[in-house]
Amino acid sequence: MMKNKRILLLSTLILFLLLALSITILTIPIYPDFHKEVKSYEDLRIGLSSGNSPILPETSIFDLKDEGYSLIFDGRTLVSKPVGFLITGTHPQSNITVHINISSEITQSNALHGDTVYRGVQISTNESTSESIKNLWMKFSMDEFDYSAHAYYDLSGLSIEEQSVINNEITGHLTMMLHQLID
Q: What does pTM read for this prediction?
């Protein structure tokens, strides 16, 4: 009888330890941030292939160099699911380098008001210029996801005409890419 109590106590202790270990593994932050870098566009596509995920853009429009790809997660634990992406890179344009960031994640707010409408989707655009940097942003929400494209480049040494040409080309590329996502 005493032996059965020891076995029962030992079994209970082992079960408790296994349960504590399982809870610890599932709740300890695995990723230091809510994103994880992947090696390629294909890895990004595979990471987003399960469940409800955003549409990946066709980035060949930009001929990106120094690309970086990241999955955005809904948490930092082992059971976190990818819910978005971040694509970064540089695009050689004339004698400058344009930095491109394209991202998507679960919609935070449905209050996005666009400057233009394409196929019923409102697209918000924004430009800003500092002394040396030109920024272009385009954003829209579709289904359950917010999509954002950001381009910036150094204005140093560029004439007003060159800035205008580059700005029009980059805006055209961003618009084409976002239209492809909407289609």
A: 0.77
